[in-house]
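Researcher: Hi, I'm a grad student and pretty new to this. My advisor asked me to get structures for two proteins we've been looking at. I'm not sure of the right format, so I'll just paste the first sequence and hope you can take it from there.
Model: That works fine. Here's the first sequence with its structure tokens right after it:
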Amino acid sequence: MFVDASALVAIIAGENDGVSLAARLDTAEPRYTAALAIYEATLGLLRIRHTTIAAITALLDDFMARSRIQTISITPEIGRLAVEAFARFGRGNHPTQLNMGDCFAYACARSLGVPLLAKGGDFPQTDIVLA
């Protein structure tokens, strides 16, 4: 499973759908995310927690270790898949209007051949398999 920033934030921040996302996370092996998703999650948690970047970084590092989520590198293939995702589902090209982070999450999951763990109504409008 590839874990999107939206799922990381929802689980760690205890949002309403965080419990169901955490349950889905617990059932999947292996688990992946990317530095871009961690960046997005850091910013999201900073807005919610109103604390320091160091505190959020430690929180995310601990969560990633406990959850056994591996961080993958963005390869040229993933970059191409993200551009293709934008062409198909990105802002101005499709009602889903995926943003850059969404396009990369889509591309990472597609490249790895794993389902995507994310919240919201965007990804169900694409052809990506959801966790």
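Researcher: Oh nice, that was easy. Here's the second one.
Model: And its structure:
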Amino acid sequence: MSELVFTKGTTKKKLVIPNLIMEQSGFEKGEMVEIHALTDAVVILKKEMTAMELVHAIAHIQQLSINLSIYLAQVCGPCTGCDGECDIDLDNPGSGVDLPEWVRQEVGIPKDAKLCAWPKEDGVVCVEEANYRYDLSDVPPQMLEVLAASGACLNELEELLMTEEKIYG
């Protein structure tokens, strides 16, 4: 079965999936389902499946993952050297700035807040809470490796993470 994509609005209380969609996915009316609540996604599976049904589900979920990865790489665009600024260390992505917990508490910076730092004169380094929630350190390492290997610009990805602008849909 090829992937069918439907756009459906939700109400404050529920999401109704039309029977046509369920039937096209091989679900029987009244059949029990398993709903997986993921961060930013929901996956609905048959409660009981044969080996082949499970193989089909796995294959289609993998293909969806690949398609979404390709989409993200295309949004980031190709890495063209970023004018010499492409210095992303895949072993330590993100700002890499950290402070001891007691220092964070003393100045009121939450434990999970991102930090940024810059040098001042006489060897002084200033550190403060960053004005963004996400950077490359929040992306799973395997995903970063795949995106880098595909030639996607990781600096652009980091910019998209920091600005939190909508890029899909």
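Researcher: Is there anything I should tell my advisor about the second?
Model: You could mention this: The helical segments are 19-24, 51-76, 101-107, 141-149, 154-163.
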